[in-house]
């Protein structure tokens, strides 16, 4: 990561520069109408891992993917009639829809934390819209703050929280809404409100915190169906070993011991192990520093699920 974070006022040049950085796999902070987002190419797992690295999140929460319009959204997710109606009513705007993920979607599995659903939003802000147009890829973007601190509504908030950890902030002044988007799940059955926000959707029922879609409910996120053993340097006969560094395994998170690469591959390899012939999964030791903390958190939850 760069040690100097630049702030550029929103302009065509600033967006061109931001798009270049994003194409090179780096996350960039940009204004939306709700809060500033930390945007990266949602189809590039390494780029998404760098979002988590910059935020210092202790775990992997599924992220919201931003797209320029409903047509782009329907290439990634499956929209029911009700979901289309909501999208037509509120997009572009501060509404996020959680819908089933298409099997053909190019989204990196780290974005959804391995879930079969995806959160999608068409933002109204011209800066984020311009960036989407310029990059031509869906952008994963959580709020642009370090884990555990409040969401940024000004470029200065982003700088205070993530200065030195990201290369660029596109400053478009204070955000209009100042509150994160409303999240509605349209994954079958009644529409469910998962997060309150600027938009009131009368027909949605309150989401239940024991449901897999509930924001922040990390314990209920994707876990493999097989028993999982941690800190394994040798596989038992019925185990699929997910390796790291020197511990080769049946598949390796990162042969060079790079935690960004390991985070990027984590959910793909958990799915691979789950789909393998072996009855159990073992995982090599992963160091606890940096992104390793988030990887270990996810593995602990999978091991005790
Ligand atoms: O206003 C906003 O929504 C801002 C701006 C930048 O667009 N973004 C934002 O993203 O708030 P983030 O990552 O901070 O919040 C994502 C929320 C989390 O609470 C997460 O649990 C939920 O969306 N979420 C994402 N994917 C989900 C899924 N597949 N199922 C259920 N919840 C999901
Ligand atoms: Mg947030």
Automatic annotation (TrEMBL):
Assigned EC number: 2.7.7.87
Coiled-coil positions: none
Main enzyme class: transferase
Function text: Required for the formation of a threonylcarbamoyl group on adenosine at position 37 (t(6)A37) in tRNAs that read codons beginning with adenine.
Major site of localization recorded for this protein: cytoplasm
Keyword Aminoacyl-tRNA synthetase part of the UniProt annotation: no
Descriptive protein name: Threonylcarbamoyl-AMP synthase
UniProt-annotated location(s): Cytoplasm
Signal peptide: none
Family: Belongs to the SUA5 family.
Catalytic reactions on record: L-threonine + hydrogencarbonate + ATP = L-threonylcarbamoyladenylate + diphosphate + H2O
Superkingdom of origin organism: Bacteria
Listed InterPro entries: DHBP_synth_RibB-like_a/b_dom (IPR017945), Sua5-like_dom (IPR006070), Sua5/YwlC_C (IPR038385), Sua5_C (IPR005145), T(6)A37_SUA5 (IPR010923), TC-AMP_synthase_SUA5 (IPR050156)
Keyword terms, alphabetized: ATP-binding, Cytoplasm, Nucleotide-binding, Nucleotidyltransferase, Transferase, tRNA processing
The YrdC-like domain, residue ranges: 12-199
Organism: Sphingomonas daechungensis
């Amino acid at each position: 990561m760069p040690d100097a974070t630049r702030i550029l006022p929103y302009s065509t040049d600033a967006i061109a520069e931001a798009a270049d950085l994003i194409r090179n796999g780096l996350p960039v902070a940009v204004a939306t109408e709700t809060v500033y987002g930390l945007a990266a190419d949602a189809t590039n797992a390494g780029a998404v891992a760098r979002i988590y690295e910059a935020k210092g999140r202790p775990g992997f929460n599924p992220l919201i993917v931003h797209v320029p319009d409903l047509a782009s959204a329907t290439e990634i997710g499956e929209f029911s009639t009700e979901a289309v109606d909501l999208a037509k009513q509120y997009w572009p705007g501060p509404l996020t829809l959680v819908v089933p993920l298409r099997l053909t979607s190019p989204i990196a599995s780290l974005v959804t934390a391995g879930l079969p659903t995806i959160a999608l939003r068409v933002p109204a802000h011209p800066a984020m819209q311009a960036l989407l147009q310029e990059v031509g890829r869906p952008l994963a973007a959580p709020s642009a703050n370090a884990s555990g601190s409040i969401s940024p509504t000004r470029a200065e908030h982003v700088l205070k929280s993530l200065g030195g950890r990201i290369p660029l902030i596109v400053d478009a002044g204070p955000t209009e809404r100042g509150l994160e988007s409303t999240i509605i799940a349209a994954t079958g059955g009644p529409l469910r409100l998962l997060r309150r926000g600027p938009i009131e959707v009368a027909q949605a029922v309150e989401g239940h915190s024991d449901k897999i879609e509930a924001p922040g409910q990390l314990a209920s996120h994707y876990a493999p169906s097989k028993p999982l053993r941690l800190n394994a340097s040798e596989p038992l006969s019925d185990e699929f070993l997910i390796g790291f560094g020197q511990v080769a395994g049946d598949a390796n998170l990162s042969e060079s011991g790079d935690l960004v690469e390991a985070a990027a591959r984590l959910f793909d390899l958990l799915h691979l192990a789950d789909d393998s012939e072996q009855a159990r999964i073992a995982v090599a030791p992963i160091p606890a520093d940096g992104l390793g903390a988030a990887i270990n958190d996810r593995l602990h939850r999978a091991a005790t699920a």
